[in-house]
Structure formats: C-alpha cells, structure tokens
Amino acid sequence: MSEASARRKPNDQPALLDTELDHLPPELRWREWMGRVEAVIFSASEPVTRSVLARVVGKNCNLELIIDDIRAELAGRPYELVAVAGGWQHRTKKIFGDAIRAAFGTAAGDGAKELSQSEALVLMCIAYFQPITRGELSSFFGKEISRDLIGVLRAQDLIASGPRSPQPGAPYTYVTTKNFLSQFGLDTLRQLPDFEALEDAGLLSKEKFLAGGIPAGLANGKGEDEVIEDQVS
C-alpha cells in the first residue's frame, strides 16, 4: 500500500483524474490516453462503451484514432480489440482457437451451451423480425414453438422480453440482447447478414413468413431494415 493510500481515510474520495494532461507534450499525452483506454478495456468483463472511455481521456481526444492506434500495436499479437455490442473488447483471435482448446478443453466464448438446430433457427428468426411473439414464431415455422425452447434462449441471455404486442391479449414479444451481439461478434444489428442473401441460400423464406403470422413491425408496413433500425436506435 502506498503512503498516500495509507493516509487516506475510508470515506475519502480518490483524487480527480487529470484527463487533459496539458503538462505533457502531445506525443506523450497521446501515449498516456492510449494506455488508459486499453487498460480500461482490458480490465472489463464486457464490452466498454464510448461514454465509459470518455471518462479517462481529454475532451478533445479522438477515441476512434486511439482505438486504431491500439489495434495497430496489437497486429502481431494473438488477441485483438474488436467493436462488439456497442463497445470495445479484447478478444483472442479465432486462429488460436485450436491452441486454446488443446490447452483447456474449451475456447474463449465456448462457455455457452451449443444451440440445437431448432433453437438456432428460432433465434435467427427473432433476430431478423423482432419484436416477435411466440405465436408469430409458431406461424412462421408451421408448428408450435414451445416455452421450453424460448426458455433455453432466455437462459443464455440471447433473447429478452420486448414490448407487449398490440394483438388481442397483448402477448409478450421477444427481442435479442446485447449478449446476443457479443456472442456473435456483432457491434449492432445492422451487421446481420442481408436477408435476401439468406433467402438465396435457402435459410429463410419471406414468402413462407408472409403466409403465416406477421410480426408487429412488418404488419405496420415496415421492412426488415426498419425493424432492425428500431432495435438499435
């Protein structure tokens, strides 16, 4: 424990952080900001947002350029700085996944239970057509989507309850979470693969969808891009 820490009383507040660093020459100031930003991201267990990083740098600091410089320095390292779930996070590069599995029997990000094909398809449908009810999901797939299946996705924090549907009985809708973005390496829902490309690959069928239940967003005349935009705005 430092002498200053030993003298500090339990209720004392730590000294305010000097974020402007006007006493330093520009190059050293930039290096200090880089170090602070990387330290904050490295110490966090989840993606760190811009508003959090702004607390440790000067008001005229360009965070995008700071991130770019940190990424450049990490170019030859086995981990990288990625934009995910509305923030930034250190992640091991995928090419080292086999080495990590050989060492520990698992790779970073493999802690979650692997989804079945049915669970993955329902999650994909929710991602593209949120907010969507369980009844609409059942209409889309032509069979009832069980509460248990929804429960699996909720237990892994991939989906959450959205706004009540305007349908009779006001059933709950489901939307994806920030953890969904994090698990799939997405910064925002705008990075989801193009719907038409999925149709071309035979993974989703808009015709089949329109023949069944229509989620609230599309029923109100919105296209897929507008529904996604609503979820990220």
From TrEMBL:
SUPFAM superfamilies: Winged helix' DNA-binding domain. Keywords: Cell cycle, Cell division, Chromosome partition, Cytoplasm. It comes from the Bacteria. This is Segregation and condensation protein B. Pfam families: SMC_ScpB (PF04079). It comes from Mesorhizobium kowhaii. GO terms for biological process: cell division; chromosome separation. The keyword Cell division applies. InterPro entries: ScpB_csome_segregation (IPR005234), WH-like_DNA-bd_sf (IPR036388), WH_DNA-bd_sf (IPR036390).
